[in-house]
Amino acid sequence: MRTRSSVRRGIVTWMGIAGGIGVVVALGAARLTEPPIRVPPPDFDSTAIACNASEAGERLLVSGRVADLSGNPIARATVTLYNTDATGHYNPANSPTRVPRIQATVRSDRDGRFQILTVMPGAYPNSDDPRHIHVTTTAEGYELTWSTIWFEGDPRLTAKLRAEGSKDHITQIATPTRDKGVAMIEHEVRMKIGTDD
Question: What is the pTM of this model?
Answer without folding.
Answer: 0.76
